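Q: Here's a chain of 534 amino acids. Please give me its 3D structure as tokens.
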Amino acid sequence: MMTGLFRCRFAFDRRYGLLTIMAGVAFLVFCGYSANIAAADFRKTKCWFDIPRDREMTCGSLHVPENRGKGSGAEIALATVVFQPDRERYEPVVFLSGGPGQSASISTREDIDGWWQFISQQTWMIGRRVVVVDQRGVGMSKPALDCSGFFKTDDWKRILPSVDADATRLDKVRKDKVLACRSALTSRGIDLSAYSTSESAADIDDLRKELGIGRWVLYGTSYGTKVALEVMAKHPEGISAAILDSVLPPDINYLKEDGPNLARSLKLLDRDCRLNRHCMRDLGKAVETIVRQLDRQPILLRSSPEANAPERYRYVSGVDFLDILFDSFYDRNDIEMLPPLIQSIYKHDYGPLARLIFDDEGDQTGIFEGMDFSVTCSESAPSRLSGKRAEYWTRWSESVDYSWICPLWLPEALARSKRQRQQSRIPALLLSGEYDAATPSDWAYRAAKTLPSSQVVVFRGVGHDVIDSDPCGSEVVADFLANPGRKIATACLQHLEAPQFVKPDVQWAGLRTRRSAAGLPKKWPPSSRFDRRH
């Protein structure tokens, strides 16, 4: 589930297929957003996809004011799907996707089949209505803050697309495209400042009321946990419990945390490698050596010859190498493949790296960039280096910081870098993967300080998105919901192991998880981490 934080890597292609023309027209009919509206209203409609046989579903759109701070304003519509159980026995659950800007994947029949499969694998979801909504600004909600039409992959990839690529030219192209997308959205009357975590939280509260649900369970992943925490703080009524998977606290300025978080995950990898006879020694030092060498002299890689296809070239620097490592810490399977990848590069065998990069070029994101920009620019202050000595990851950390967008996107906004944490006594389960570089376990413990009725469970050897990474996650959630006040002691936690690293002599298979260029794993439901972000 990519649940994901999504860190902007600027390869903004759409991950989802197009709806049929008729389905698209049908949805647009009930999802107009230009009219004024004073209060929320849920409008049931025919589903825009074929409902699977022997399944019961409800489709519709939640219509709310675009900006609740204004006395009157535009109406927006949030696409909503309710997965009905065979027999309802427990309180409903609402899913909050990651991002910011992550679609909930409810556009096509394929998406819906994926959701049903996911629900069937979660014992704690059996007997519950599962409510899935595209948050404001994303997916099938209207308007969608989609900039993909303005961004070409070659303009945005930091792995430069040709041997003579001009970084200065690319920077200008990027800024021009950001301004072009902003102009296109604002010319339609869209208030970009209204697309925020607080407004999304108010949407979720309105959705519960309009669906006639007395109490439900919040289930957020990555950035979705930040929305859930906002709902718990501002709209606590009607929430029986919260499942927070890969936690993003509201007061974290994530634009300046990537470097230290990646370094922490690499230390864990080095620690576990020292206990595994298949790993090279001093893996951490090898990574630092590779990064410094590639930053001094990027390596020019060439794609493997293909019939009737031109050769492709990419320069790869230490920054690009660390980007690949960061992506890999999302998924346990990828983590287990990292030591042989690092070892091959350290020995100047770049074949596995080349295959990884060129095989990854067609991957697409599920992030709606405009929503990501609006949330990030209004809620995270620009990061600044501390002035301490440069670490081997410093250049990478600077390169993934996209706060330069903010003066262009929301020139009038002042980011709230120190959002006050608020206490909530709602029972909450906070799940964290030990290796997660996007939302590390420290963040879960930080959020728990304001949740006196919460428990934190860290999963050994797991990366981002615990529930979709290991079946034990589902068992822990089921135990928690059965008795939220009881200390978690699920048996499967005792059997979690360190990553089982692949032998160096095993033929390279490549990383199995493809994330946006949102590092989004092809799992259900999807998440993100700022193009991988949260």
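Q: Can you summarize the key feature?
A: DSSP finds 16 helices and eleven strands in the chain.
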